[in-house]
Design a protein that fits this description.
With about 210 residues, this protein is α+β, with helices and mostly antiparallel strands. It has 2 domains: about 45 residues; about 160 residues, no CATH class. It is built from 6 helices and 5 strands; from the N terminus they run H-E-H-H-H-H-H-E-E-E-E. It has a 5-stranded antiparallel beta sheet, with helices on one face.
Length: about 210
């Protein structure tokens, strides 16, 4: 190989390396911008530009039949199904089995399996206030006692329905800074939306009566 060929190959390798770095940097920048946009979309839920629906319940369900009696039990929108999932969980402290039956209904073709039952126990045992915090008027200062009738607002953001037949909806807790997600899947043959993941059950601020620093 001559000197000219060596120089040409070295120059070509340098150009290729620089091109790869440019491409990688562009990809990383785009990914960072997309992630920032998604985070901001969640933080800005409820501040305008995103749809929301508020649901009112005169009383909370005791059995799955009670749940099915609500007009929202048509499950023909992701908003309705999300609201009913929160309402169903208010019964957990008194009767977990009743909640599992309600979620069997809300999960459609799937059942509430042992893993999900354990998930509910880990997140909600002794912490029923988490669920009540999603209702209007519930705050740490009043021990998450909502106003009656019970009202809950379900939100979407610009990315909620990006994937066909899937949705990520959001609910706001009076004890958390950012909205919490709930994942759903649509059954095209019926047009109904069913729960797949309750990602909204992380810890929140302690009720005032249980807070030693209050």
């Amino acid at each position: 190989m001559g000197l000219f060929d060596s120089i040409k190959n070295a120059l070509g390798s340098s150009i290729k390396s620089e091109a790869r770095r440019t491409i990688h940097n562009a990809v990383d920048t785009a990914a960072d911008k997309a992630q920032d946009a998604a985070v901001n979309a969640v933080k800005n839920i409820g501040k305008g530009g995103n749809s929301s629906k508020t649901f009112k319940f005169e009383k909370l369900p005791v059995t799955v039949e009670d749940l099915k009696a609500y007009p929202e039990a048509s499950l023909d929108s992701a908003f309705k199904t999300t609201a009913l999932a929160i309402v169903a969980l208010t019964r957990y402290e008194q009767d977990p089995q009743a909640v599992y039956a309600m979620f069997d209904f809300l999960k459609g073709p799937d059942d509430t399996n042992k893993h999900e039952q354990q998930f509910f126990e880990e997140r909600l045992k002794g912490k029923a206030y988490k669920i009540m915090s999603f209702f209007e008027g519930a705050t740490p200062e009043n021990d998450y006692k909502p106003k009656e009738p019970y009202k809950i607002t379900v939100y979407e953001n610009p990315y909620s329905f990006d994937e066909e037949n899937w949705a990520t909806m959001y609910v706001k807790s009076g004890g958390a800074d950012n909205p919490r997600p709930v994942k759903l899947r649509k059954k095209p043959s019926t047009g109904q939306w069913f729960i797949t993941e309750m990602q909204c059950l992380e810890d929140i601020r302690t009720p005032k009566s249980d807070d030693p620093w209050a």
